[in-house]
Amino acid sequence: MKNRLPTVPVSKKDQIDKLIVNARNLISTDIKKSFRLANEGLQMSQEIFYKKGEADALRTIGINYDAQNKLGKALEMYKKAMPFYIALGDKQGEAMLYNNFGIIDFKHAKYISAMNYYFQSLKIKEDLGDLRGVSSSYTNIGSVYQRQNNHKTATKFYKKALLISKQIQDVFLTAAL
Q1: Domain that holds residue 94
Q2: Cα(163)–Cα(117) distance, rounded to whole angstroms?
Q3: Share of the chain above pLDDT 90, in %
Q4: pTM of the full predicted structure?
C-alpha cells in the first residue's frame, strides 16, 4: 500500500485566483481560452462576492480585449475594475490599471493623458517599493517621450529603467531596454 498525502481542499478563492492567473498566461497563446477562463473567474467571483477576484477578472478581460485591439471594450473593463481596487485598498491593482489606462491612451495617440496615467502608476509603485514596476513605468514614460520625438528625455527615462532592471537583476526588462 502506497503512502498517500492527504488532499487539501482548495478554497473557491484559490480556484478563482488560479483561473485568472491561467487566463493571463494564455493571452498571447490562446486568447479564446484566456477569455473563457477570465469570464469563468468573474462569474465565480460574483457568486461568492469575492471582490478581489472580480477586479482581477475584469482587468484580465480588459487585457484580452486590448490584445485584440478592442480598445473601447478594454477601457470599459478597466473602468469596471477600478472601484473594486479602490474599495479594497489594493494599491498594486490601482497602479496596474493606471498603467492599462495609459496604454489605451498611448494607442489612441493621447500622449498627455497616457503620460498622466503612467505617472500616477509610477507614484504608487514608488510608494510600494515595487522596483520592477517603477522600471516598467519609466520605460512607458520614455516611450511617450520617444513617440513625441523628445529623444533626450526619452533616453533619460530609459536609462533610469535600465539602471533599476540591472539593480534587481531582471533580465527580461534589461533585454527589453
Answers
A1: 90-177
A2: 22
A3: 85
A4: 0.87
| pLDDT tens-place string over residues 19-45 | 999 999 999 999 999 999 999 999 999
Measured CA angle at 153 (ends 125, 101), to 5 deg: 40
CA 59 to chain centre: 7
Name the residue with cell 529623444: 151
The verdict on 172 and 99 lying in the same domain is yes
User: Using CA atoms, how far apart are residues 118 and 99, in angstroms rounded to an integer?
Assistant: 6
- Cα–Cα distance measured from residue 75 to residue 85, given in angstroms and rounded to the nearest whole number: 15
The grid cell for 7 is 488532499
**Contact criterion met (CB below 8 Å) for 77 and 104:** no
- Please indicate, yes or no, whether residues 166 and 154 belong to a single structural domain of this protein: yes
Residue 172 has pLDDT above 80, yes or no: no
Compute how many other C-beta atoms are within 10 angstroms of the C-beta atom of residue 116: 16
Set of cell numbers at residue 85:
481596487
Q: Would you place residue 169 in the very low, low, confident or very high pLDDT band (cuts 50, 70, 90)?
A: confident
Same domain, 95 and 173: yes
